[in-house]
Amino acid sequence: MIGWRETSIKARREIFFKVTQGIKQRRSEIIGCITKETTSTVAMAEFETQLTLEILEELGSVISTALKSEIDGPAEPGRTTYITREPFGVVFGISPWNAPFALASRAVATPIVAGNTVVLKTSEMSPLSNTIIAQLFMEAGLPPGVLNVIHCSPENAPKVTETVIAHPAVRKVNFTGSTRVGSIIGSLCGKYIKPVTLELGGAAALIVLEDADLEHAVKSTLLGKFFHSGQICMSTNNILVHESVADEYISILSRETSQLQASHQPNSDKHIRGLFSPASAKRVNELVGDALFKGAELVLGDKDIAGKQNSGNLVQPVILDKVTQEMDISRNEIFGPALAITRIKTDEEAIAFVNRSGYGLSGAIHSRDIGRALRVARRIEASLVHINSFTIHDHATIPHGGMKDSGFGRFNGFEGVREFTQIKVISVTDVGPIPRLGL
Q1: Class of the CATH domain delimited by 2-200+406-426
Q2: Same fold, 2-200+406-426 and 204-387
Q3: Which GO MF term does the entry hold, naming one (predicted)?
Q4: What share of the chain is helix, strand, coil (3-state, %, to 5)?
Q5: 204-387 falls under which CATH superfamily?
Q6: 239-267 pLDDT, tens per residue?
Q7: With 70 as the cut, is the pLDDT of residue 113 above it?
Q8: Where are the domains of the chain?
Q9: What is the pLDDT of residues 128-180, one digit of tens each?
Q10: What H or E segment, with its residue span, contains residue 14?
Q11: Which residues participate in catalysis according to the annotation?
Q12: Which of 161, 162, 211, 326 has the most CB atoms around its CB within 10 Å?
C-alpha cells in the first residue's frame, strides 16, 4: 500500500498513541485471553501486556530520529548526496505462542511504524491472543490493507508460510520462535532472496563468580529460570558457579526452589504453571533423564523423572549438579523448570563453556568486581549480558536479538525501526562538464 509509506510521522504517532490507549482500556480482556489460550500465569500476561505498551510508546517516540535522512558532505565537488531510509514494502511477520500478545505486537508494530505494510501469521496455538493487536490497530484508525492477518492449521503451516514468503510482493520477513523452525524460515528466505530478522532460541548461562553476593545470585536464578515455567527464550539454562562457593550457592538455591510447586491452578508466587503441552513436559523429562544417566547428580526433583512419560504437562522444579557439556541438557534449550549446574575453576573456563554453545542470546554474570565482570561479559558470545541481574531482560529502549544460532537482526526502539528500513542514496550533481571516459 503506497499510501501508508507516505503517511506523515505525526499521523503514525497518533495511531500508535490510540493503540496504547486501547491496550490500557482492554488490559483485563487481553490478560484474560492470554491466560485462557496459553499456559501463562496472570503475572506473565501482565508482564507482556505492560512490555507491549512500553514497546509501542518507544517506537512512536523514536520514529523521527530513526527515519531521519542524512546529507553527505562535499565528498565530490558539485555533487550533493542524500542518504535516506525507506520501508521495504510488505513485511511478513510470524509470531509464537509463548508471549503471544507482546511478540505479535512487536512483529507488526515495528515494521508498520517504519512505513511498511504487514502480513501476520498467527501461532496455531494462540491465534486469538496474536490477533488482539490487529483489532487494536484497526480501532485506532489504521487504514485498511496496512495490517493483514492469516490463521492456519498446524498441518498447513509449512505450505502457507512458503507461499507467503515466495510471493513477489513480500520484501522482508521476521520470525520469532525456535532455532529449528528459524532455520527453515531462513532457508526459505535464502531460496527466494528475502532479508529476514530471526529472534530464536537460547540456552542462557548465569555465571556465579567466587566474590558474588550469593543470596542475590539465587534470587536472580529463580526469576531467570522459573518465570513462565522456563518457557522464555532468555530463561536461565546453565549455572556456572565457582567451585569455592558452589556448595553454599546450591544450598541456598535448593532451599528456595523447594518452596516452588508446579500446579494446574497456581494461586501464589510459590506456584508455577504446567508446560505448554504434555509433549513439552516429556522433552524436559528426557533431558533430565539423559543427564542423570550420564552422571549428573540430582539435588532437587524426582529421581525417576525419566520415567514420567504420562504426567501430563506438569514438571516439578529440578536442580542438577555436576553437569557436563557432554550432556544434552547443557547444550539444548530446556524450555522448562530444570536447572543444570556446572562447577568452574576460572573465568576462562566459564567463558569457554558459554562460547562452545551454539546459542548466543542472553547471559548473566554475578560478581562484586564490576571491572572483572565487564571483562568476562565482553568475551561472551551473546547479544545480551547482564551483570548482577537475571538472564530475562527485554526493555523497549534496548535492542533485542541474538547471535549465532539465536538469530540475527534487532527489535525495539531506534534499532528496531531501522531494521525494517533499507538505505537509499540519491545524489544531485550540478549541471556542467561531464568527465570523459577513460579519465
Answers
A1: alpha beta
A2: no
A3: oxidoreductase activity, acting on the aldehyde or oxo group of donors, NAD or NADP as acceptor
A4: 45, 20, 35
A5: Aldehyde Dehydrogenase; Chain A, domain 2 (3.40.309.10)
A6: 999 999 999 999 999 999 999 999 887 76
A7: yes
A8: 2-200+406-426, 204-387
A9: 999 999 999 999 999 999 999 999 999 999 999 999 999 999 999 999 999 99
A10: helix 9-25
A11: 199, 233
A12: 161
